[in-house]
Amino acid sequence: MTKNTDYLTLKNPIEVFTNKDKKELTREDLIEVIIGNDIERITFHYTGIDGKIKELKIPITSRKQAERILTDGERVDGSSLFKGLVEVGKSDLYVVPLYKSAFFNPFEEGSLDFICKFVDRNGNLANFAPDNILSNAHNLLKKNHGYELLAHGEVEFYLLGEQENCTYVLPAQKGYHASSPFAKTGLVVSEMLRIISQITGSVKYAHNEVGTLHHIDSEYTELNGKYAEQVEIEFALSDVEEAANNVILAAWIIRNVAYRYGLIATFFPKIEPGQAGTGFHIHMALSKDGKNIMCDSAGELSNDALKLIGGLCKYAPSLTSFGNTVSASYLRLVPGQEAPTKVFWSDSNRSALIRVPLAWTKVSNLTKIVNPQQKTPSPIDEVRQTVELRSPDGSANVHLLLAGITMAVDWGLVDTDKSLPLAEISRVDSGGSGASADVDVLMTCCVDSAELLLAKRAHYEREGIFPPAVIDYVAELLKKENDSNLNSRLLALAEDERMKESRKIMHRDIHRC
């Protein structure tokens, strides 16, 4: 038996078939994939203004048709996908496949799938599409500084179903890194992990998170009485644009696998009062010439890393407009939890808005400590430092959020006279002391986030990156939540009534996120 020395088990099958890196795929390669794998249809996926993945199925009946589809894409109704942004009279848009995103559909045999980009009637990338806004923001960063922004998301979600086996009970709020038989969703998560890894090639790990709900009380039949376990799938760093697409695809895969098993997957930021909420933490790093530049030669945060942090501190309060978009988001962002409420940063402190996690900067080759027989050090020597933004949750419009983060990083690198002092005064030590008393606070409801976004719109509209119509659209959606003084209104209620009203807010749009 020949050993598999290339670790191909979880490699993208299209890369295996073509013997090419996905970034090098051409139309000719994809035609061979279609012919060699009995492909019946091409499925296009793309993200509308609501941040949700859409799809278009195209049956393939001839090579000529396949070549045309791969060359020019297809037409879609932009006025439906971007309601309020695209006029009905000029609604047609093109969706054009991104070759490097190609994958075999794991849920329907015979389908070759792609992530697509929106192109307008003049052949330009549609400037109001969230993924194109992110591309434009990233191009601005690269033009201004010669840096790439790398990012990855921590995708947290709850899996809800019937509790059929009541042995090896997993205690409430004790689910962190739980293993079977206490954790009941291990096989489901392993299937999710396999599919996401094959398609994206960019997964670090998966594990159970803190949350465990033994019996959900809800007025909604779909949720009432359900058992729930909280799970996290964390990605590895990649180009910020690819990172956004990875998260969107992961959510699609997670829901589909859960559906196969008769479970519900929800990314909603809070589904039970007093229990663990669901975040969507974003890690990021600056890269130049393919190298992480977040640390200096002594392993300390580099000057550019501090500028990045200063930029995040400047933009953080208004970033809730893209990262915390439902009323339940602000039932998670409350004091006393591991969710942030103030704009400060710290090493390792999980209550901080911005966290600098351990990254092997002071130590390396740790294996020799526990495996003294290992004499040679690893040949891998690379900086792995990231900075983590902990405020966003599963309601985030992923592309717009990452575009806003990219604009924050660009500001931090441009306006260094302000970003470096801001980083300095916003720092606390791991014990929670050291920050200025007048640091900014995060918004406490969607309405306040909308008002702040409108007041700070110049942060995002500069250089023409966020179209004004998109800012207006996001603000209007937030205002429709009508949740002014949300937490104070709930606290004024009697306990039973408060729990009932909180659950209503948490459960009414469970599939919106």
Summarize the structure.
The chain has 513 residues and is of the alpha+beta class. It has 17 helices and 16 strands.
Task: Explain the overall architecture.
- With 513 residues, the chain is of the alpha+beta class.
- The chain has two domains: 13-126, Roll (Ubiquitin-like (UB roll)); 136-368 and 381-507, Glutamine synthetase/guanido kinase, catalytic domain (Creatine Kinase, Chain A, domain 2, 2-Layer Sandwich), CATH 3.30.590.10.
- The chain is 36% helix and 18% strand.
- The protein is built from 17 helices and 16 strands.
- Strands 7, 8, 9, 10, 11, 12, 13, 14, 15 and 16 form a ten-stranded mixed sheet that branches. Strands 1, 2, 3, 4, 5 and 6 form a six-stranded mixed sheet that branches.
- α8 crosses α12 (416-425).
- The protein is globular, with a radius of gyration of 23 Å.
Number of domains: 2
Query: How would you characterize the largest beta sheet?
Result: 10 strands, mixed
Global geometry? globular
- Indicate the low-confidence ranges by residue numbers: 1-5
CATH architecture group name of the largest domain:
2-Layer Sandwich
Terminal CA distance = 47 Å
Our Rg estimate from Cα atoms comes to: 23 Å
> What's the average pLDDT?
94
**SSE class:** alpha+beta
CATH level-3 fold name of the largest domain: Creatine Kinase, Chain A, domain 2
Task: Give the amount of beta strand, in percent.
Answer: 15-25%
The fourth-level CATH homologous superfamily of the largest domain is Glutamine synthetase/guanido kinase, catalytic domain
Number of strands: 16
Output the CATH class name of the largest domain. Alpha Beta
How many H/I helices? 17
Helix content: 25-40%
